[in-house]
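To whoever picks this up:

The nightly regression suite flagged Transcriptional regulator protein as changed. Nothing in the input moved, so I suspect the structure step. Input below, exactly as stored in the fixture:
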Amino acid sequence: MVREKLPPIHPGTILKKEFLIPRKISQTKLADNTGFSLKLVKEVCQAKKPIDAEIAFQLGNYLGTSAELWLGLQQDYEQERLEEILERKVKKNKISSLIGRKTNGRVRKHT
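Regenerated output under the current build:
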């Protein structure tokens, strides 16, 4: 049985779906209560900006979690993304070595 790997989940997605929506906290309210700009909050929630130490600290204080939670989620996300990229490169290299490499417009057979 082949296990399908789920795509990495950005901590901003977790923030939005697991904390803000269930608690009925708007992104505007989060920005107002943490001192973040609304633009920053939106970028984090849209997975366009990573959660750094300052953001993690403020989120921890406001949401009753820890900075370590948010930093750990960010680190896990980045590690999983890197693993995906490296796995794709390995697969691409294996395929290239199986079908041969182009040399001067010709395909060279792998022996």
